[in-house]
Write a structure and sequence with these properties.
11 strands
C-alpha cells in the first residue's frame, strides 16, 4: 500500500477580516474598557455576561435590568450576531439536530446536537474546513479556510443550550451537559482559541457556562506538542485521539500528519496526558471497510495500548459515516463485531460509537460542502 503525499494547510494569516468583537473573546476588564469608551458603567459588563452565559440570551428586549435606551448599543458593542442559521436538519425523531451556520464573512460551519435519555451532547466546530487533509473525511476534503474565534465557538454552545432550555428539541426543556470538539477542524491546530472557549465553558457564572471540564472532550489527529501543552493546562478535559490505524504504513495514508508524528509518538503523548491529568483517554477508530478493519489490526492496537499500561484508555470504534461518491464506506457488521471482540478479549474497554444523523448528511462537513458548491 502506498500513501499519497499531502500538504497540510496552516490557517491563513492576515488575509481575512477578523470576526466582530464579542463578549466571549474578552476578559472582564477588557469588557469594562470597551463599555467605558461608550460611556457606560463597569457593572454593565457583568450584567451582559449574566444575560449571555446564565440566561443564554443576546436579545436586548429580554435585558430588562439594563436601561431601555442603552440596550441596543450595549448588545451591538459586545454581543453582535456571529452565527446565522442556514439549514437545520433533524433525525432520530427530532433528538438529533444538525445545524449549518453562516459566519460574518459568508463561510459556513456545522454543529450537531444529540439528545440522549440522561445527557445532551453538542458536537462543535473549531475551524472553517480543516487542514489535516484526511482523505475519508468530508471536512478534510474542504481544505482549511480559517480558524474560528472564541466567540464563534462559544456561540455554537450558547445557541444549543438556549434551544434545549426553551424546549425546542424533542423531549421537552433540558440542559446541555456535554461538549465535544469533533466537528469541523482540528481543534489543537487552533489551540489558543479552543482553550479560550474551554475556559468559557467551565468558568462559573457569570464568566462562563459553569460546565464540568470532565464533560468537555477535545479531539486531535495527533499533534504531539499540542497534546503535551494541553496536559499542562490543569483543566481535566477528556482527550480523544483520532487514531484510525495502529500501523504507520496505513496511518500515513489515512492521517497525513502521521508523517510528522508516528503512531507510537501519538500514543506516547496520549499516555503522558493520562499521567498528567488522571483522565482516561479515548481512542477514536473509524472502521473503514477493507481498509483498517482487519482482525490483526485490532490485535496490534490492543498490544500497543497494553504496552503502555492498563486502565488508561478506552477505544471507540466508529462505523464510518460515508460521504456521497466516496470510495470509503463502513465495515461489514460481522467484521466490526470481530474487531470489537478482539479488543475486548485483550481487556481493552471498547464501546462502539453511536452513529447518529446518517440520514441527514451526518458526516461532518457534508452540509458545508453542499453550501460551498
Amino acid at each position: 500500500m502506498t500513501s499519497t503525499p499531502v500538504t497540510l494547510q496552516m490557517a491563513p494569516r492576515g488575509r481575512r477580516p477578523k470576526p466582530p468583537r464579542h463578549l466571549a473573546d474578552l476578559s472582564h476588564d477588557e469588557r469594562v474598557d470597551v463599555l467605558a469608551e461608550l460611556g457606560h458603567a463597569p457593572l454593565r459588563a457583568k450584567q451582559l455576561a449574566t444575560h449571555y452565559f446564565t440566561h443564554l440570551t443576546a436579545d436586548p428586549e429580554r435585558m430588562t435590568d439594563l436601561p431601555a435606551a442603552a440596550r441596543g448599543e450595549l448588545v451591538e458593542a459586545l454581543l453582535p450576531q456571529l452565527l446565522t442559521p442556514v439549514r437545520t436538519l433533524t433525525a432520530d425523531r427530532g433528538k438529533t439536530v444538525k445545524s449549518l451556520w453562516r459566519l460574518f464573512d459568508g463561510v459556513s460551519v456545522e454543529s450537531v446536537l444529540m439528545r440522549y435519555p440522561r445527557r445532551a451532547t453538542l458536537c462543535i466546530s473549531s475551524q472553517v474546513g480543516c487542514g489535516m487533509a484526511c482523505p475519508f473525511c468530508a471536512t478534510g476534503q474542504l481544505g482549511l479556510t480559517r480558524n474560528l474565534s472564541v466567540g464563534e465557538i462559544v456561540e455554537q454552545v450558547r445557541l444549543a443550550a438556549a434551544a434545549l432550555e426553551a424546549g425546542e428539541v424533542a423531549g421537552g426543556p433540558g440542559r446541555l451537559t456535554n461538549i465535544v470538539f469533533m466537528g469541523m477542524g482540528e481543534p489543537l491546530a487552533n489551540y489558543k482559541t479552543v482553550m479560550g472557549a474551554v475556559r468559557r465553558f467551565v468558568a462559573p457564572a457569570p464568566e462562563g457556562f459553569g460546565m464540568s471540564a470532565r464533560n468537555v472532550t477535545v479531539s486531535t489527529v495527533g499533534l504531539v506538542p499540542a497534546i503535551d501543552k494541553l496536559a499542562a493546562e490543569g483543566i481535566p478535559v477528556t482527550l480523544a485521539l483520532s487514531l484510525h490505524a495502529p500501523d504507520d504504513e496505513l496511518r500515513d495514508e489515512l492521517i497525513p500528519v502521521n508523517s510528522r508524528w508516528k503512531v507510537d509518538e501519538a500514543l506516547d503523548a496520549a499516555y503522558r496526558f493520562f499521567e498528567a491529568t488522571g483522565r482516561r483517554v479515548s481512542i477514536e477508530y473509524a472502521l473503514i471497510r477493507d481498509m483498517n478493519d482487519h482482525g490483526w489490526r485490532a490485535s496490534l492496537l490492543a498490544d500497543k495500548l497494553l504496552a503502555r499500561g492498563k486502565g488508561w484508555v478506552h477505544v471507540n470504534p466508529i462505523p464510518l459515516n460515508p460521504t456521497p461518491g466516496s470510495r470509503w464506506t463502513a465495515s461489514d457488521p460481522a467484521v466490526e463485531a470481530e474487531f470489537v471482540a478482539r479488543l475486548r478479549a485483550a481487556g481493552i474497554p471498547t464501546t462502539v460509537r453511536d452513529t447518529r444523523g446518517s440520514d441527514i448528511d451526518g458526516a461532518c462537513g457534508q452540509l458545508a460542502a453542499q453550501e460551498a458548491e
